[in-house]
Design goal:
alpha/beta; seven-stranded parallel beta sheet; four-stranded mixed beta sheet; 12 helices; 15 strands
Length: about 350
């Protein structure tokens, strides 16, 4: 299979490229420069520096003509704040360009597409009472992205969306989402105070396998909830402490009301200059205090995701986050795939 990949130098795109090449596929990727030092890109991947937001229709047709597969491993995640309304920013990066690319892929005869999405979309569907789509612009954008992508799927064009959880594993120069956890832990004296709840997780290598699996196995339009491990925060944090060099540090579970009070304060500070976040903080405890778990039988097993060393992957993420915070390593980008 000849595959056109958007986001080839990113944390997930490069993992997908490596796995696809290992399986015998050809990968032609675009991404924004620079390539972070030590990024570990597969040498067999053909790479060109292009901005997926400004690439012309003619250029897209040129890249996709003759391809069997298309992978979208780019966009922005919930860490990005910006001027209100932030939803338009997310649409600009996650919705509109993918809409154009899927339309072009169908026009060029591409048969299979795999897209990086978010597990927040999965929980929006199974927890309608929480109204995640209504409250959180980022989740709103991801659900709209899914609906749009599924509209393109048919018997001649297979579209698979990975509803990805938190991901562990490092790529030099790419800031891990777990940088915030390192900041929080460092800012607390004596013990780490954290809410109840927990999350599903996978490693970077497993995401690469899931993207390759989605490209090869999706039939019609399918959203794949992805999660291989489920851990409570109080189980995850001791591993984080270990790799921060404080293995004996305690974890104290705080009540929900305390987290909600803190989140309201964060939202108030964010809104003062007219900014808005991807997640609405006063309602974020509804997610953070829940068990956002995913059964691996829903996505990982059918897509052929293999076991991996989650402890080591957590260590890679935490050490890199600490090195970036300490100025030991340059942080090139926080946008996935850029």
């Amino acid at each position: 299979m000849k595959v056109f990949l958007v986001g080839g130098t990113g944390l997930l795109g490069s993992a997908a490229a490596a796995e696809l090449i290992r399986r015998g596929h050809q990968v032609h990727a675009i991404a924004l420069p620079p390539v972070p030092e030590g990024a570990g890109l597969p040498p067999e991947m053909k790479l060109e520096f292009k901005n997926y937001l400004t690439i012309t229709d003619s250029e897209l047709h040129g890249y996709m003509t003759g391809c069997d597969g298309f992978v979208f491993a780019s966009g922005v995640d919930e860490r990005v704040d910006g001027p209100s309304p932030i939803l338009e920013f997310y649409n600009k990066h996650n919705l509109y360009p993918l809409d154009r690319m899927l339309r072009t892929a169908k026009e060029c005869g591409v048969k299979n597409a795999a897209i990086c999405g978010s597990y927040f979309s999965y929980f929006d569907k199974i927890w309608p009472e929480k109204q995640l789509y209504h409250w959180h612009p980022y989740i709103h954008s991801r659900r709209d992205q899914e609906k749009m992508a599924m509209d393109y799927a048919d018997t001649d064009f297979n579209v698979g969306i990975l509803e990805l959880p938190y991901i562990f594993g490092a790529q030099q120069g790419r800031e891990p989402v777990w940088t915030l956890i390192v900041k929080i832990v460092r800012g607390m004296m004596g013990a780490t105070m954290y809410p109840r709840g927990g999350t599903a997780m996978v490693t970077r290598r497993q995401v690469g396998q899931a993207l390759a699996g989605a490209l090869e196995k999706t039939k019609g339009g399918q959203c794949w909830p992805i999660g291989y491990w489920n851990m409570k925060w109080k189980e995850l944090l001791p591993i984080v402490h270990k790799y921060m060099g404080m293995p004996k540090r305690r974890v104290i579970t705080i009540p929900d009301w305390m987290l909600k009070l803190g989140m309201k304060g964060m939202e108030k500070q964010l809104r003062k200059p007219g900014a808005e976040g991807g997640l609405y903080m006063p309602k974020f405890p509804d997610i953070q205090c829940a068990q956002t778990y995913v059964d691996k039988a829903l996505g990982c097993v059918p897509l052929g995701v293999e076991d991996d060393d989650i402890d080591a992957a957590i260590g890679e993420s935490i050490r890199l986050a600490a090195d970036i915070l300490d100025g030991k390593i340059k942080n090139y980008a926080t946008m996935i795939g850029e």
